[in-house]
Amino acid sequence: MRRLRFHPCGNFNETYREELTIFETDFGRLSLLVGLILLFVVVPFISNAYILYIVNTIGIFAIAAIGLNLLIGYTGQISLGHGAFFGVGAYSAAILSTKAGFPFLIAVPLAGLITALVGMIFGTPSIRLKHLYLCIATLASQFILEYIFVQWEGLTGGAAGISIPAASIFGIDLGSDRNFFFVIFFCFSLMTWIAVNLIRTRYGRAFIAIRDNDQAAEGMGIPIFIYKLLAFAISSFYAGFAGALFAYYMMSITPEPFGIWLSIEYIAMIIIGGLGSIPGSVFGTVFIVVLSEVLSNVTQYLMNISPSIGGAITIAPLREFVYGLAIVLFIIFEPKGLAEVWRIGRSSFRLWPFSY
Amino acid sequence: MEFFFQIVINGLSLGFLYALAALGFVMIFKSSSVLNFAHGGLMAIGAFLFLVLSAWAKLPIWVAFLLTLIGSFSLGFIIERFFLRPLIGEALIEVIMLTLGLFIMIKGLLLFIFGGDIHSYPDFLPEALTFHWEAVEIPGVYVASFMVGVIFLGLFGFFFKYSSQGIYMRSVADNQPAAMALGVHVRRVFALSWAIAALVAAMSGIVLGIINGINVHEISGIGLKVFPVVILGGLDSIGGAILGGIIIGLLENFTAGYISPGLREVIPYIALIIILLIKPYGLFGLVEIERV
């Protein structure tokens, strides 16, 4: 057996392979294993229905957030339409399962592929556009897709939406939160694994080169348009996949959740979590979902203790205010997000209690 | 034919509103290259400030109007100083996200204070402003807002063309390092452009409030409609913003009148995508030439 690896006191990488390594030490690998065991064996059995619902929501949103981080954080193409792509995935899954009768296992990846196609269509303006202009083009795609969700009643059921029968895999019913938990987190682990490794391939390096300077990247022989489209496709695939899981989990979908607000939430997740960091996207998702749950509980609580003051109308918008405040404060004081906080925290404990 | 004229007039007046809203937006973009998502929020703040001063504090209309302009002017300074200045030189997405965060904050705060109902200003426009021409009728508010808009557009044109601060602003927009080297106080120019933009936003918020009633959702929603307008006109062109506003306003009303009312909300964005594909820098926008 080879010797365990510990942290060196500096950067002593000698090969490119060492530079690319995911786990710097064997403890990293070990803690990942412990984390996965905790996640799959302990969490679903100790948490009550409400906690499980929140954890499931985090899992679904985290998949889409990772996809958005691949696009914004790694490729540098700002998208304000991620919420709508998430909706495209949800609607495709719903339509595939109700109208075409596809089973869960086929409908979900297929929904992801359909969304990837839609994402590529709306990604085509990136041939000529960059930065602000692309950002506005994706904003337009958000509104156009939203309009299609509401108006194409024959396919999407209009404002009434579609209800979906409970999913099942190999005869196991996925109607309960706990059964669905395993599906969500299996997909989550798989998608995270893919994303982390994608960044280490030539595709990932091309994405990063495009983010850092697209003209220099083109000069180095990267066909930037193809790679930009690929980034849009991959990111939309993640969004569509997550959206499909969301549709099956909620069992009925309406156009409302997929508005501009959701897109803003996704961007908030990856900004707060940390741009260009896969764990960061997960941290950000946890932060946003927990924050929004806490805020809605607080508003509920305040409404219950003071129904006479007419709290129902006046307190609810404070939620939005706190939400905006969190985004603004993070951007001003910790622009690299929670991933950076985590890194700083970890490295100060690395040699604890004998640091230097 | 009457229907046609009514549509043209509605379209022109709506377009004029968009143009007013786009004006402040272009101002910020032109001098500091910040894409301001909080613009709708600034408009709403202006509209509500005027509401508080005119309807609740019962000040005379002119005093209330002046105080609103002064208030939003200082608000622009404050926003630039505390939120935008720490981000000078940061990545684009962070600045965009910051203005989005500001927008959510402002909207939440206004909803908290004023609720989601439609408020309205006291009636202060003289009846004589209503304009009749055969069967076509133009309500007084449109005439008044048109007059206010033209006055302010004239003032700003004058300001940019002849005043020293206006020239500084143009120089910063043109070439920031060169302006700095010539002794232009760039940070002050940024602050001033935010202050002026907040002022213009407040004005367009008031006009919008007079026409449609004051509602947080509605006014802040217009802030997003500004994007098709400025993209069509060119992000950094004031003349383009006006023309773009009028074109988008007409387009919306013609779509609603002749094709389908439901399509009205989304047609500007479809137009936006088409413009971006054909002519990305808009009608009058400056084409950016990049060199590695």
Question: What is the compact description of this entry?
Answer:
Chain A contains 16 helices and four strands. Chain A has 356 residues and is mostly helical.
Describe this structure in words.
The complex is a heterodimer of chains A (356) and B (292). Chain A starts with 15 loop residues before the first helix and ends in a 7-residue tail after the last helix. Chain A has a single domain, classed as ABC transporter involved in vitamin B12 uptake, BtuC. In chain A, 42% of the residues are buried. Chain A has 356 residues and is mainly α. In chain A, helix 3 (49-74) packs parallel to helix 8 (177-198), helix 4 runs parallel beside helix 6 and helix 12 crosses helix 13 (278-305). The longest helix of chain A is centred in the C-terminal third of the chain and has 28 residues, at 278-305. Chain A has a two-stranded antiparallel sheet. Chain A has helices at residues 16-20, 26-46, 49-74, 82-98, 104-123, 131-151, 153-156, 177-198, 202-212, 214-219, 224-250, 260-273, 278-305, 311-315, 317-333, 337-349; strands at 162-163, 168-169, 172-173, 252-253. By secondary structure, chain B is an all-alpha fold. Chain B has a domain at 17-217. Helix content of chain B is 74%, strand content 2%. Chain B contains eleven helices and two strands; from the N terminus they run ααααββααααααα. A two-stranded antiparallel ribbon of chain B has the order 1-2. In chain B, strand 1 (131-133) and strand 2 (136-138) form a beta hairpin. In chain B, helix 1 runs parallel beside helix 5 (140-162), helix 2 (39-56) packs across helix 9 (216-233) and helix 5 (140-162) packs across helix 6. The longest helix of chain B has 31 residues, at 2-32. Chain B starts with a helix and ends in a 14-residue tail after the last helix. The relative contact order of chain B is 0.20. The chains are: A mainly alpha (356), B mainly alpha (292). Chains A and B meet through helix 6, helix 10, helix 12, helix 14 and helix 15 of A and helix 4, helix 9 and helix 11 of B.
